[in-house]
Amino acid sequence: MKSPASFKKAAAWALPYWTRGQAGRETPQDLFRVLYFGWLVALTLKLLGSAWDVSWHFKWLRDDLAPPHLLNSAGTAVALALTVIHGYTGYGVDKAALRLIQWGTGIFLVAVPLDLINHRVNGLDITSWSPSHIMLYLGTFFMIAGVIRGWFMGAPPGRERTVVLGAFFAFFLENVHFPEQHQEYGTLSIGAWDNHATYAEPILLRFAADQMGRPVDRTMMVGFSLPVPDYLYPVYAVVVGLAVLVVARLMIGRFGAATLVAAGYVGFRTVIWPLLTVTGFPPSAVPFFLVVAGLLVDLAFLVRMPYVRAVLGSIGGTAAVYGALAAQNAIMGGVYGAIKGQEGLLGAPPQAMSSAVWAGLGLLIVWLAVEWIADKRGHQTMEARVIATATP
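Structure for DUF2029 domain-containing protein, as requested:
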């Protein structure tokens, strides 16, 4: 525990920076690092809380003051403090980064009471895909997007810049993938039921059954554990999850960036899995297929980027379009195959294979849109470096 003298020393260091200023003002590097390492702390607390939260809700009846909620709230409190600091002083962010952080924090804070009201009115909120939950993810989405932009624009080149940027993208991937955990926990919960075991406490099962107007049977378990269509899991993973990896690869600008971001998130899920189960909480399927997806994205940048440039620049004609489509279909097929393989070996949510067409089309549109925006925002130098790595 720090002594009062340490707190006084820290206050004496920070106080001169507490001045009103506009976003984009020149920020001393020591202050810049403190602010963004503060964001690492905030997002780590939120990550730990959210990782525990899904498992908690598959075991216990909901409680507003459950430990996972308190841990997540601690991270939110740190994030709110950092948002106020950025907004008042203007340090560490440009206008775009500040607006993203402020809007994200604001949406999240509005979503919290709406979610509480939703639970009061509807009892159990059986799916993580509910409107109030989506608002929570959306707020965190904008918040982390602003943090990524702030760090990307202000951090000096070097290993630390790359590593921390990768860490922020791993937090970003966790946030967008978070709703998919409902199916990842749900599929193992149904498997446990089929093996004459349950992870959930009787009070939770009884509450869910009463809300559905059913006895505690398999139909109720499926409605509780997998309340969304089978096509949602793979389509969302391919379109949204891979979009994050594409942006990470573009902004980090190095081969292996997408793979390492995915591996960082999956590695965390792998470590937290036994820590939860040893304490009696339900297990989940871990999305190992995301590592395969990250590797495919990295490989695609080596062979496909010239095609993308040709499409965006309206040169190359039909050959460029066919090349882009071929690469996109290969990635989509690889991810679907990885999910199917994982389903047979390690467990994964059920998927509707017919949805692959829509997943591939969605990924193609999102990927081209991301690169078009990057090109319009002045990322030509970064893209040229990627193309150079692909050119013999």
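The CA atoms of residues 289 and 338 lie 5 Å apart.
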